[in-house]
Design a protein that fits this description.
The protein is built from seven helices and eleven strands. By secondary structure, the protein is of the alpha/beta class. The strands form two sheets. A nine-stranded mixed beta sheet has the order 4-3-5-2-1-6-10-11-9, sandwiched between helices. A two-stranded antiparallel ribbon has the order 7-8.
Length: 238
């Protein structure tokens, strides 16, 4: 079995909920630290890594208060929450010795760099992890779409989505006992069956640019490293 990674540059998409651990809201230090160590193990193999992190752990916790807020403003609130998660992950990664940069689609130079594609590529070439925050910088687009866009802009080999389960299922396996797990799917399968791998805009963008999506469990130790080698348990959409 080859020890060389199959994918040399990847974008890892994480949900905000994946950072909560057993908490109902916010960040779990132990979970964030564990994910940082998983990322470091892959980074140490020479894989170039960029990240997009959602904000469900923060923004959904205040969503009831935002229920009457105009959609555009609410979306910007969510984007700001992703910056908070990005800074937390940057701190955790640098705590384990991984040089990291945060780039925000909404310029805020006091806390991080603005998103500049060529600069981000240069960071990757210098073996820095780059975390893309604030989504696409536009309302009405999710962090799934931001992940697809950044993966394509960075010329990644694959978009890896770390989730709560070990692939894509026909239904929520935590709620439906006989849910079927898929090893491979086409982009059209995902759209036609409404499988909720990522939102439709993200699927269309990856399909049009030939960007494979690999869905795996971020809770399984070593799974991120396995997937970058093309092994382990995951679903590939291509």
């Amino acid at each position: 079995m080859s020890s060389e990674p199959k994918y040399r540059r990847v974008l890892l998409k994480l949900s905000g909920e994946g950072l909560m651990g057993q908490k109902a809201f916010g960040l779990c230090d132990e979970t964030v630290g564990r994910i940082a160590r998983e990322i470091k193990s892959v980074h140490d193999m020479g894989v170039e890594i960029c990240l997009v992190i959602g904000a469900g752990n923060i923004f959904r916790g205040v969503s009831s208060a935002a229920a009457n807020i105009e959609r555009t403003s609410a979306d910007y609130m969510g984007m700001l929450a992703t910056v908070m998660n990005a800074l937390a992950m940057q701190s955790a990664l640098e705590g384990v010795g991984v040089d990291t940069r945060v780039q925000s689609a909404i310029p805020m130079p006091t806390v991080c760099e603005p998103f500049i594609r060529r600069r981000a590529v240069r960071h990757l070439e210098k073996k820095r992890v780059v975390i893309f925050a604030a989504g696409t910088g536009n309302p009405y687009f999710t962090t799934d779409t931001a992940a697809a866009l950044r993966a394509i802009e960075m010329d990644c080999d694959a978009l890896l989505k770390g989730t709560q389960v070990d692939g894509v299922y026909s239904a929520d396996p935590k709620k439906v006992a006989d849910a079927v797990r898929y090893d491979t799917l086409s982009y059209q399968d995902v759209l036609a069956r409404d499988l909720r791998v990522m939102d439709a805009s993200a699927i269309a963008l990856t399909r049009d640019n030939g960007m494979p999506i690999l869905v795996f469990s971020m809770h399984t130790p070593g799974a991120f490293a396995d997937v970058t080698h093309g092994r382990g348990t995951y679903t590939i959409v291509e």
